[in-house]
Amino acid sequence: MSKSIAINAGSSSLKFQLLEMPEETVVAKGLVERIGMEDAIFTISYGEDQEYKVVEPILNHEVAVEKLLEQLVALEIIASFDEITGVGHRVVAGGELFKDSALVDDEVIKQVEELAEFAPLHNKAEAIGMKAFKKVLPDITSVAVFDTSFHTSMPKKAYLYSVPMEYYTEFKARKYGAHGTSHRFVARRAAEMLGKPLEELKIITCHLGNGASITAVDGGKSVDTSMGFSPLAGLTMGTRCGDIDASLVGFLMNKLNITDINEFVDILNHKSGLLGLSGVSSDMRDVETAAAEGNEDAQVALEIFVDRVQKYIGQYVAVMNGVDAIVFTAGIGENSKETRRDVINGLTWFGCAIDEERNNTRKEAIISPEGAKVAVLNIPTNEEVEIARDIERLRK
Ligand code: ADP
């Protein structure tokens, strides 16, 4: 039996999913939270609705990895460590260096650490996670999967900002995008569902979760994406502002007597988006409920959310000079039939349409009417499966 473990390490957390490969079935998943504390929380769900949960001291990521592996054996989820043949680490920033997932060695770990200037909190934690697994399971295939890799196919005209060229050549200041693993997974799946070669399709993938981004996928390659140098750009998100006029930063810092730019960027990252607009919540369900109860700020927050998605789709129709399919995925994309309907109903000029009955789903489905010019699909994303597939693909 061959199992792979997909890891998503944060500064104080470690999420994991254990998959049986090549079947791609989930055997167990869980989370270690509050790493570094005496009262860290460790949860595993497995089997048929079984759950293991303890609060105990877990002082660093290495201890988290050791405990996680020991517990998989103790709960008889695996008979021994030998069953785990691969580990895949999600990494936020791969810069221009990582155009594909990579086998982890000391050099790759060093490069991930060096790329931390593009994602300070994330890359450092991810490198720690890689080292921890190397120490405990040194012989298994270990792969780093980058959020940015899928977007390294973007042409210069898409990834350069219109600022002096030396900011790019000297500092690598450019658009990198994010959510690449998800966009890649759903684009490929869309082609399968439509029974057409990915190479022949123009697809717009809408990853609408708490973080949200849209990608233009032409012939299987990302040619533009809505997130930018960082995940702050693009759409209106749960707490992130998305695109704004840079002049607003100076103007508001003056008005608010804020002198530290980091303090203001923090507002744009954590207090803006649906939360800032509605004053209710960053969670789409809460905003939808408040809007239905007559809260006007929540109503306008929903309108803005949909408006930005429509505008990016419009842009990407122009970027690719056409579109064959639009895909919705992630928390909002997969679950909010209202959002999907409202977005598509504003794009009928492009030949987009929604079939209300087909749209009444949370599962994988084609939700446009039979024979529609543009196929609209709902595809639950699965970044863990994509990571596990990369482990298989790169296995030595
Ligand atoms: P992330 O992985 O970026 O944290 P998710 O992909 O889990 O986020 O998406 C979270 C978002 O999905 C939240 O805004 C949540 O309200 C929304 N969501 C989940 N279920 C529904 C639903 N039934 N209707 C509308 N929105 C939903």
Automatic annotation (TrEMBL):
The keyword Ligase does not apply. Pathway: Metabolic intermediate biosynthesis; acetyl-CoA biosynthesis; acetyl-CoA from acetate: step 1/2. Keywords: ATP-binding, Cytoplasm, Kinase, Magnesium, Metal-binding, Nucleotide-binding, Transferase. It is an enzyme of class 2 (transferase). It is found in: Cytoplasm. GO terms for biological process: acetate metabolic process; acetyl-CoA biosynthetic process. Its EC number is 2.7.2.1. Its main location: cytoplasm. It catalyses: acetate + ATP = acetyl phosphate + ADP. GO terms for cellular component: cytoplasm. The active site is at D147. Mg(2+) binds at N8, E383. It holds the Pfam family Acetate_kinase. Mg(2+). Can also accept Mn(2+). ATP binds at K15, H207, L208, G209, N210, G211, D283, M284, R285, G331, I332, G333, E334, N335. The record marks H179, R240 as: Transition state stabilizer. Substrate binds at R90. Its cofactor is Mg(2+); Mn(2+). GO terms for molecular function: acetate kinase activity; ATP binding; magnesium ion binding. InterPro entries: Ac/propionate_kinase, Aliphatic_acid_kin_short-chain, Aliphatic_acid_kinase_CS, ATPase_NBD. PANTHER family: ACETATE KINASE, ACETATE KINASE-RELATED. Catalyzes the formation of acetyl phosphate from acetate and ATP. Can also catalyze the reverse reaction. Homodimer. Belongs to the acetokinase family. This is Acetate kinase. It comes from Granulicatella balaenopterae. The gene is ackA.
